[in-house]
């Protein structure tokens, strides 16, 4: 896990990588299906145009929402990747890229890159993404069946859909 600041570009990128001991199909489903995301991450609802609403609840019981608009999604035989625009009210929008790569064995690697997060939220996002990917690891360890060598991931549908237009949605 790391947060890298590029002072020349006045930008920051958070990068988190996890090697997970389950197959590509299970990980891909866990990070692209609203039902699965709601189990290990936070309550999630997929709306029109590939826009997710994500509800977060503080220890105090207070809830707030962030929105993620899917900009691109591609699934291949040995890897998949998607990008989404993350909107956090009161802060500038940022981009998150998720990549899942099968390692040829029983496991896969998940890489998450959060580009240009609001500077005042970098520390929180850095800890948060690491914590959430640890929660994903625990969820997969509890629920994932053993990988099947006969599975055909390139033929399986992806629950995440990119909107027809790449135009930014209004706030």
Automatic annotation (TrEMBL):
Region called Disordered, residue ranges: 140-171
All copies of domain Activator of Hsp90 ATPase homologue 1/2-like C-terminal, residue ranges: 25-140
InterPro entries (alphabetical): ASHA1/2-like_C (IPR013538), START-like_dom_sf (IPR023393)
Domain of life, per lineage: Bacteria
Gene3D superfamilies named among the record's database cross-references: 3.30.530.20
Family in the record: Belongs to the AHA1 family.
Name of this protein: SRPBCC domain-containing protein
């Amino acid at each position: 896990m790391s947060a890298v600041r590029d002072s020349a570009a006045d930008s920051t990128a958070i990068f988190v990588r996890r090697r997970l001991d389950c197959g590509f199909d299970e990980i891909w489903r866990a990070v692209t299906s609203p039902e699965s995301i709601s189990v290990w991450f936070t309550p999630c609802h997929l709306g029109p145009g590939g826009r997710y609403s994500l509800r977060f609840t503080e220890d105090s019981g207070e809830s707030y929402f962030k929105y993620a608009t899917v900009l691109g999604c591609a699934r291949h035989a040995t890897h998949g990747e998607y990008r989404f625009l993350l909107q956090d009210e009161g802060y500038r929008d940022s981009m998150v890229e998720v990549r899942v790569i099968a390692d040829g064995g029983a496991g896969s690697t998940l890489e998450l890159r959060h580009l240009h997060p609001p500077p005042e939220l970098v520390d929180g996002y850095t800890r948060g993404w690491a914590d959430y990917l640890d929660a994903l690891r625990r969820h997969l360890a509890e629920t994932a069946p053993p990988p099947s060598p006969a599975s055909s991931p390139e033929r399986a549908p992806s629950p995440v859909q990119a909107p027809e237009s790449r135009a930014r949605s209004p706030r």
